[in-house]
Amino acid sequence: MLGSTHGTLTTDFRARVVACGEEPHASVVSLPTATRQGGLDVSGRPLHLAVPDLDRFFRPRSMAVVGASDTVGRPNTGITRQLIAWAERVGARLHPVHPARDAVFGRPCVPSVAALPEPVDLAVLLVADPLPVIEELGEAKIPFAVAFASGFAETGEAGAVAQARLAAAVERSGVRLLGPNTNLNAFEEFRDGLEGPAIALITQSGHQGRPLYALQELGIRLSHWAPTGNEADLETADFLAYFAQRPEVGAIACYVEGLKDGRSFLLAADRAARAGVPVVAVKVGRTEAGAEAAASHTGKLTGADQVVDAAMRQFGVVRVDGLDELQDTAALLARARPPRAEGVAVYSISGGTGAHFADLATAAGLALPALSPAKQDELHTWIPGYLNVANPIDNGGHPVGDHRGRKIIDAILADPSVGVLICPITGPFPPMSDRLAQDLVDAAEATDKLVCVIWGSPVGTEDAYRTTLLGSSRVATFRTFSNCVTAVKAYLDHHRFASGYRSPFDEAPRTPSPSFRKARSLMRPGQQLSEHAAKQLLRAYGIRVPREQLVTSAAGAVRAAGPVGYPVVMKASGPHLAHKTELGLVKVGLTSASQVRDAYRELTDIARFESVDLDGILVCQMIDRGVEMMVGVTHDALFGPTVTVGLGGVLVEVLHDTAVRVPPFGEKEARDMLGELRGRALLAGVRGGAPVDVDALVEVVLRVQRMALELGDDLTELDINPLVVLGRGQGAVALDALAVCR
């Protein structure tokens, strides 16, 4: 770390996504004109998020403590004492509220909220049941409140009902509530005198934020801490959007157990991406056990992890696994300048150390460019010729007694291909390690490139570490190889992302397309469409399907086969018919009228035996070349419609090789989806096969996204499988489709 980031929208969220200036106690941060006009996308989902004026929360002019106490031994007494100290630090006037006390810690105490001597910005509720107090706060027009009480959604069904009542009361009152089931982290004392951009912290579990709070001991500045708890009202997204506009915030670090509303989170992440503020997050729920534990803790939905992961990457949120990674990555992103180049140079005093780190860095996707022959010759001026200086650079022992050490470091940093210099110091070995640390610090002060040091000593009390490295605001110091690799990769990825970021919400369609009007007439509420009807839906959106006719007699099948063109495929078509092949309801490669007649009779006989409700038999063009893919739409509990692409046919069920995105997204994201597939080489052609029409595949993905946006919750599922992608310039054809209407 451096020395010295499905569903229908809830009524609550819709109520808070409003036109600028309409929300009580809210100020909307300036957005590009495109997001301030219209406000909703084609499916009625919001395009911008009202941001509460949380200045009045974190820096209130006056505050009330309801349930204040100074009785020895009572929990409320210690909390009251801490709140008094916090109020003095931020310059707020504090008013105790208690019906049975005249004074608390020598301060006049009023019996009720209505009796407060002046308007207050913040009320802290030290009561077991905050619900009866909420109405009083609303009548007093208090904008913010904090409820510490537990026993709500984190406890199960009964608690969730109690929390719903609390949330409804909060919405009626106009008060913005932090909690319930939160803690005192928002009122912690932050160290003064630390310089540089700060980290703002958001946690749903207070203890999980403690390691980041301790960063101050290493010289890292913290500006805010939002412990969101159960998020009956104020949520992670509110604080994320607020912190993104704060000038002192260099990065936002989050510990998220579950999201209240996926859409609001994405709108807040978009705001951070627009502002260029990196967001680093630990998101619980990668495993079933983690998801269950998170639900019991905060009562939140953790969401399908693949969707959460994709949504975060779409909006530049850096997802890490551990709190140590959260510390180091957020600290680096908060304080390091943008890279001048993406190449990483590794400088070590041991060939083994350099090789080990180079393996880890390369496996993570970092580029270690070989230094030019001229640069290597220059380095060999100070480094023996038998040592490798191509990259990693092995010095055989950093020079101690003269000027050569600093010259080596400066020469590496001067190479135009190098944007990051990483020096692993695997253990203290004075005086060499001391001199190396000082030379690195001095070089870092003189360059605009990133210098990272890994101090490998398990002790960490050495002066070279505690004073020299941690005393520098320009050197990023880590304790492990893996954390350094994770943080540097995130640093380079973030700046690459930020430099080319265009908000997908700016490009989201505002009005329905002509395709939408055609598609609406084809929808059948509450039904799964037949293959024939589903393909008509695809045709409405310009997605190519085979030549085919729906017939209801053997003679009709023979007549249809001629214009369709032999050989043909015949398939049963009917609602609620998903797995035709398993039932024997597909016949392929039919080359004559007699085969078509026989196939018709066999298919209808099987359908009668299996009690399948048919709307007819499809006589289809046979397409037997190309790469089989699948493209689909499903609904995620947090994010609503999602689009999936992957290998098609049976491979999708066997390999689960898929990529997912949350609409809206553009062509770049669609191409990135294909790049994430393990089987992407099939698209480029393997074993002598020709490359396929990737452009056509991307176009299908974007058209399916348009369907997801326009049809919204009315289209609960769409599965195009297989989608056969033909050779370059020949397009893609949807051979089968399943669609389910709400």
TrEMBL record:
Name of the protein in question: Acetate--CoA ligase family protein
Keywords (A to Z) from UniProt: ATP-binding, Ligase, Nucleotide-binding
Any one Gene Ontology molecular-function term assigned to this protein's record: metal ion binding
Pfam families: ATP-grasp_5, CoA_binding_2, Succ_CoA_lig
Organism: Streptomyces arboris
InterPro entries recorded: ATP-grasp, ATP_grasp_subdomain_1, CoA-bd, NAD(P)-bd_dom_sf, Succ_CoA_lig_flav_dom, Succinyl-CoA_synth-like
The keyword ATP-binding is annotated on this UniProt entry: yes
Domain ATP-grasp intervals: 535-573
